[in-house]
Amino acid sequence: MKTLFLMRHGKSDWDNDLPDFERPLAKRGLKDVPFMSGIVANYEFKPEIIVSSPAQRAKETARIFASSISCKNDIIYEESFYEKGESAYLNKIQQLDEKFDSAIFIGHNPTLEFCSELICFGKKSKDSKIIMPTSSIIAFALPIESWSEFKPGTGKIMLLLIPKLLKSKKD
Question: Rounded to two decimals, what is the model's pTM?
């Protein structure tokens, strides 16, 4: 059995004239990412490896996440996770190192939502039925012994964490 987490990067800062690729996390992202990764840190099953988009907001999310869960492995920055579509993520699943039983991919929407549908249902809809706001995390149980055995449609959702649903109204 393998476990795959997908996380959408934290809320990004639009209050500047930076190109999309260079946008950092906004204040809300800097609050939500540690909160969400802190929840995952308390689970028995945690990602052993982090693969992230190289965009600034995703890199910041990955670093915060790695620190929160005390990930011992280096973060892998995958160029294809930025604007290459869900096939980049699905291909990367099959290429993961077999020494890891769990991994997290940190990236962008709408790609992560469509990727989630493909992992669960084997197809994507016109408008994704799985909603992942910023800093959301979804985890899938994959009934495989080797990452190379992964096939779309075989994943079972283990958890879906959405910041606004987990935080109190006063935050």
Answer: 0.94
